[in-house]
Write a structure and sequence with these properties.
The chain is of the alpha/beta class and about 350 residues long. It has three domains: about 120 residues, NadA-like (Rossmann fold, 3-Layer(aba) Sandwich), CATH 3.40.50.10800; about 100 residues, NadA-like (Rossmann fold, 3-Layer(aba) Sandwich); about 70 residues, 3-Layer(aba) Sandwich (Rossmann fold), CATH 3.40.50. The chain has a five-stranded parallel β-sheet, sandwiched between helices. A four-stranded parallel β-sheet has the order 2-1-3-4, with helices on both faces. The longest helix is centred in the N-terminal third of the chain and has 20 residues. The chain is globular and about 60 Å long. The chain starts with a helix and ends with a helix.
């Protein structure tokens, strides 16, 4: 098994990873794959995993929505989630009787940490009767306060499915602004500190999408100026931006979509070269899978939380049954309905 994995990694990564490192990683991957068979485990790998892991041990790879579907449908006893904490929590929400493991307890998310369940409750009090759409990139207690979840790939569909005049959309400010533009809604990001009301005599504006202040620490760093600089050097480049990027960056790009949509675009659209404005390991993974496609690098931005997931820690996770994902049953039960509604929309 080790030699087979080594040969696969060599064919995909031999030009960028030293041979001695590939052999070490192949040995680790072989141990993991043997152990997951012995323990009846399934490994889910997010598109942001580093290439040697991404191309060796996951049974399924994909974006948050795709991995939710795979988690919901698995018949394995153990789910090892090579992704960040909110993803592993979602797998546990869908599989309360199964053992769900995350290889590193440090794999958090700046966006998920930008909002609390209490924040959602306060927004509901401020906007009574307005349904709450919560991005999948949130923790279980926040999902439990929501009406429906969404991913970056189906956010507009979810908002439109509610058929209401107003929607609270949490917590990513940029995804909210991009979704508002896609659905033709006016957006407001409420102030964290209440301001005294002022009577202006003017008719009060009704905002149809109410957002929040959260941002992804990776995607918020991409700028329009970076795109323009790269276009000056490579005028024929096709720029793909994740919808967690700012509205200005998305407007400057040629295409915007989820990680899965970006992968499909590169697969299906012939272009001289591509630039992906997202976590840089995904570009590495596409380049390894499709050496015939020319991907430019703007890879100064690596998610520190995704980087916590390694082959070494994944092996230890399976060997020692660590780190166990556990949820309060009331929170899990209340979070299940909005997650299932999201999956049903697709």
């Amino acid at each position: 098994m080790t030699e087979q994995i080594y040969a696969k990694l060599k064919s995909k990564l031999g030009d960028v990873v030293p041979d001695v490192e590939l052999r070490v990683k192949a040995e680790l991957a072989a141990k993991i794959n043997r152990l997951k068979e012995e323990k009846n485990a399934v490994i889910l790998g997010h598109n942001y995993m580093e290439p040697a892991l991404f191309h060796s041990i996951p049974d399924f790879t994909g974006d948050s929505l795709e991995l939710c579907r795979k988690a919901a449908g698995t018949d394995k006893d153990i789910i090892v989630f090579c992704g960040v904490k909110f993803m592993a929590e979602t797998a546990k929400i869908l599989n309360p009787e199964k053992t769900v493991l995350i290889p590193s307890p440090k794999a958090g998310c700046s966006l998920a940490e930008s909002i609390t369940a209490q924040d959602v409750r306060q927004l509901r009090e401020k906007y009574p009767g307005v349904p709450v759409v919560t991005y999948i990139n949130t923790y279980a207690d926040v999902k439990a306060e929501s009406d429906i979840c969404c991913t970056s790939g189906n956010a507009a569909k979810v908002v439109e499915s509610l058929k209401t005049d107003q929607v609270i959309f949490l917590p990513d400010e940029y995804l909210a602004r991009n979704t508002a533009a896609e659905t033709g809604k006016r957006i407001i990001i409420p102030s964290r500190t209440p301001r005294p009301s002022r009577q202006t005599g003017a008719e009060q504006v009704t905002y149809e999408l109410i957002g929040w202040h959260g941002r992804c620490e990776v995607h918020e760093r991409f700028t329009v100026e970076e795109i323009k600089t790269i276009r000056r050097q490579f005028p024929d480049v096709v720029v793909l931006a994740h919808p967690e990027c700012s509205r200005e960056v998305v407007e400057e790009a040629d295409f915007s979509g989820s990680t899965a949509a970006m992968i499909r675009y590169v697969e299906e659209v012939n272009a001289p070269r591509y630039l992906l404005l997202t976590e840089c390991s995904m570009g590495d993974n596409i380049a390894a899978a499709r050496p015939d496609k020319e991907l430019l690098r703007l890879c100064s931005i690596r998610c520190p939380h995704m980087a916590e997931i390694t082959l070494e820690d994944t092996l230890a996770s399976l060997e020692k049954n660590r780190y166990l994902v556990e949820l309060d049953e009331d929170i899990r039960r209340r979070a299940l309905k909005p997650v299932e509604r999201m999956i049903a929309i697709g």
